[in-house]
Amino acid sequence: MAARVIDGKAVAAAVRERVRVDVVAYEAEAGRTPALATVLVGDDPASEVYIRGKHKASGEAGIRSVHHSLDAATRQEDLEQLVADLNADDDVDGILVQLPLPDHLDPDRVVALIDPAKDVDGLTPVNAGLLAHGTPGLVSCTPAGVMELLAHEGVELEGKEAVVVGRSKLVGVPVARLLLLANATVTMCHSRTRDLDAVCARADVLIAAVGVPRLLGAAAVKPGAVVIDVGINRTDDGLVGDVDYDAAAEVAAAITPVPGGVGPMTIAMLLHNTLQAARARTGHS
Ligand code: NAP
Questions:
Q1: Cα of 231 to ligand 1 centre, how many Å?
Q2: Closest residue (by CA) to atom 15 of ligand 1?
C-alpha cells in the first residue's frame, strides 16, 4: 500500500499564514514591526537562492528584513563587527548568518557571538544548551519544522521508537532532543553505526538527516512507520532525499517527499522564530 504523502508545502503555508496574522496583532500592540537581519558572505548561488527565499517569505509575513551582503574575502574581524552591530541594533529582532561561510572564516566563532535572544537559527551554544537542558529557547528551524510536520500529521510520539540518522549540530542532535522532550524513545545513528538498516527498521518514526542520496531503502523502514526525510541532495535525477522514496513509500504509513517536505518548513519556522524573538525581546505578544 502506498504511504500517505506529508505535504510540507501546505503545512508551511499554514504556519506562514499563522505568523502573518500574529505579526499584525504584535504590531498593533507593540507599535513596531519585527525585523530580521540576514548576512551572506560571498556569492554562493545556492545560498543566494536561500536568502532570497527568506526575504520574500519575510515580506509576505509582514516581517521587515534587511540584508547584508559581504565580499567573499571579508575578514573574520569585520564579520564579527557586523554581528556585534546587529546585536546592538534595537530595531533588529533576528540575526541569521547564512552558512556555510567561505573556508577562511570560522563559523563557530561567528555563531557564538550572536545574541542568543536574536538567534533565530537556534545555533548559538546558549540555545543549543537550553534545548539540551530541556528548556528550549529559540530552536533551530529545520528541527522545529520536523516537529511541526509530525504534530500536524497527528503523530503520537510518547513511548514510540524514534530513530534519527545523522548527528549534526544543525539537524540530527536538535531533532533527537526535541523527540526526547516529546517522550519518544530515541536512537541516534551516524556514520559508524553498525547494521544501519536493522536499527532504522525498529523505528515508528524515522528521521533521515544524512546527506547521502537514497541511503535508506525499504529494508530500513518498519511497516507502518512515519518517515521524515530531511536530506536535500543534488543528483543527475534532480533533488533527492536520503530516503529511497519509491521503495520506502511501499512500506511506510506516511512519508515526506523531497522536494516539498521538510524544505519549506525551514523558512516557515524562521518566520515563527523571528516573531517569537521580537515578542520575547520587547515583552509584547
Ligand atoms: P552533516 O552535518 O553533513 O551531517 C551528516 C550526518 O550524517 C553526520 O552525523 C554523519 O555521521 C551522518 N552520516 C553520513 N554518512 C552516513 C552513513 N552512510 N550512514 C549513517 N550516517 C551517516 O549534514 P546536515 O547539515 O545534518 O544535513 C543533512 C542533510 O539534510 C543534507 O542533505 C542537507 O542538505 C539536508 N538539510 C536540509 C535542510 C532542509 O531545510 N530541508 C536543512 C539542513 C540540512 P558522522 O557524524 O559520523 O560523520
A1: 7
A2: 191
> Distance, CA 172 to ligand 1 centroid (Å)?
7
CB of 30 within 6 A of ligand 1: the answer is no
Is 242 known to be catalytic?
A: no
Q: Tens digit of pLDDT for each residue in 160-200?
A: 999 999 999 999 999 999 999 999 999 999 999 999 999 99
Dist. CA 110 → ligand 1 center (Å): 21
Q: Which of 22, 115, 119, 121 is catalytic?
A: 121
- pLDDT 10s digits, 83-132: 999 999 999 999 999 999 999 999 999 999 999 999 999 999 999 999 99
Annotation says 98 is catalytic: yes
| pTM recorded for the entire structure | 0.97
The span from the CA of 55 to the CA of 241, in Å, is 25
